[in-house]
From TrEMBL:
Residues 10-50 form the Polymerase nucleotidyl transferase domain. Gene3D superfamilies: Beta Polymerase, domain 2 (3.30.460.10). This is Nucleotidyltransferase domain-containing protein. CDD domains: NT_KNTase_like. SUPFAM superfamilies: Nucleotidyltransferase (SSF81301).
Amino acid sequence: MTYLDLCERFIDREFPAAEIAVIGGSTARGDRTASSDIDLLVIGDALFPNGGTSLAATYRFEGEIFEVFAYTHDGYREWARGGIDQHRPVIVHMLVEGEEVRGGQALTALREEWGARLADGPTVDEHELALRRYMITDLLDDLRDATDELERNVIAWTLFSRVAELVLLAERHWIGTGKYLPRRLRDLDPVRAERLAAPLLHGDLTAFAAHADEELARAGGRVQDGFVR
């Protein structure tokens, strides 16, 4: 199957007014699995004749599942800025890194604009970093004090996410949710990612806590007494 042709047929049916269309995710990267869907970013000012500036929806078409993110140009700017403010610019990554279906010069111009912002990395103020260190400090203490195995594991996996985000943001790298968080951590530094993740995956929560503590120290250390949230 040619996914570009498939996406064109889908767009012709559902979003014929699309000016720009980009395939993202595993389909664009070429590493689809049996359950992979097709992530599709669609932009055009005439997409919503009845009003609105954005739509996130799921469709089935010719045996494939499409996860569609559709925007007017103003809607895209609004949601892209929101993602950047949250340090998770999903639709900006889709735009810049995905595979073109439609767009031409208009897509090239958008990629230049948003690609430059993506390359800058996130801007995180010291208070936010301190707040994240505060939460990690609390989780580390909870993990070391917990005796219930289920509680310990839930705390440990939450701690992994918080530490991974802190590592990325302290190094001015974008974060992600779900499977994209460990991927971004590995992209930053596969050795640090493995050192943090390996004991967690092997159930050695004592060693995991020690490595999480090392990353916390690297980012500035524990935050507790006197911190104002």
